Amino acid sequence: MTRLRELRGPLAAAVALALLSWAVISFVHAFADWLYGDARFYELWGNLLTNYKVPYRDFNLEYPPGALPAFVVPVYLRKLSGYHGSYFDWLRVEILILQLGCLWAMALALLRLGASRRHAWWALAVAGAGSGILGPIAFFHYDWWPAFLAVAALAALLAGRGVLACALAALGAAAKVFPILLLPFALAELWRRRGRRAAGLGLVAAAAVLAVAVLPFAALGPHGISWAVHRESQRPLEVESIASSFFVAAHELAGYRLHHVWAAGSTGFVGSGPHTAARMLTPLLVLAVAGVFALWLRSRRGAEELVLAVAAIVAADVVFSKVFSPQYLVWLLPLVPLVGGRVGARATALLVAILAVTQIWEPYRQGEYWTFAHAWVDWLVVGRNVLVVALLAVLVEPLVRGAPAREHEAVSALPAD
Fold first, then answer.
1. Closest CA to 237 of 200, 210, 263, 207
2. Disulfide: which of 133, 187, 250, 274 matches 256 by Cβ 3.0-4.6 Å?
């Protein structure tokens, strides 16, 4: 597949699936009744911003400055509509636009990968329907914004636009940190293909974007920034994290006593065991990220290896984080389906299963998990987390072998900038 027009069919089908998912979740009461959650805070912050309040100085905000556009855009969309509908309605419009942007970036990436028509159909279809499979949790969080920036950075890198990829990864990091994981790939490719000067330009572009996004708020509200950093760094082991599954399983199997607290906007487990696990996760995450990057460096470093490594490194971030909010699965939706061949098919099938299993309890029975109201809910979450670990293993295994499943030998190399 070499021409964008050949992707019109798969892309149109994916858009239709995204629109259908959005309509069902937004207007069927069984789902729409749950479309609030963190969106209530977004509305508050968006209104404060439009009333000229300075975040981090005039009010506390736990999210990085790059998230602010996602909070304020629905306020202005509602104003432009003549104040028809609520903030929540326009937030869902924003989320739909971002999801469609992800599909477009995926199509560009698939074009550069030289993906087969079959791969393009199932990759875009899964991404289009994924929000519906995950359910309401995908429609009241702003995670589609950093997800869009991450997949756009990957598409730019596949197209040989390394400096642009660095800038997009930095902007994504200013929104929700994890897209910064794409920056080393972009810098390494710039260095390899155009030398140290090009890599320096990429680093300058990333630094400039972060400076523009973060420094004004750090200067105006240093105490608010330090409060947000402290709040995130000191939060306990979140109840749905992968590491928490060990303690939940021990509770169900051996009566291990667990205590939970509400802290930093979520519920976390406390005690010597969870506290030790939370401290160990940061170095484990660093090792996992470094390990995936090292495996990629020793590979052929073609387009397919790059997509595989990026999907794996974001999955590693989810697995080894002490916080695993279910909306983090949105990060994987535009990335995992880009992986081709049998590896991609297995990984995408696992991702679909993870999304579907998550919706069984989230958000409908979320409180029944950490209060241990029903053992089957506990085992469902533990099983979901096992599937996430399996997803990471499926993505990493070809990198370890040094032979990712590939559809076309002709696309093994990345284009130069």
1. 263
2. 250
The pair of structure tokens assigned to 26 is 């937004």
Q: Which helix (H) or strand (E) holds 175?
A: helix 162-176
Q: What's the residue count for the chain?
A: 417
Q: What is the pLDDT of residues 289-347, one digit of tens each?
A: 999 999 999 988 899 999 999 999 999 999 999 999 899 999 999 999 999 999 999 99
Return the domain boundaries, the chain.
4-411
Tokens, residue 202: 């990429």
CA dihedral 199, 204, 206, 210 (to 10 degrees): 160
Among candidates 396, 407, 4, 61, which has minimal Cα distance to 220?
61
pLDDT tens profile 42-91: 999 999 999 999 999 999 998 999 999 999 999 999 999 999 989 999 99
37 phi, psi to nearest 5 deg: 50, -130
* DSSP per-residue letters across 36-68: -TTHHHHHHHHHHHHTTPPBTTTB--SS-GGGH
Distance of alpha carbon 82 from alpha carbon 237, whole angstroms? 44
The per-residue pLDDT for range 388-415, each reduced to its tens digit, is: 999 999 999 999 988 655 554 444 455 6
pTM check: above 0.90: yes
Residue 194 tokens read as 């155009």
Cβ contact 165:156 at 8 Å: yes
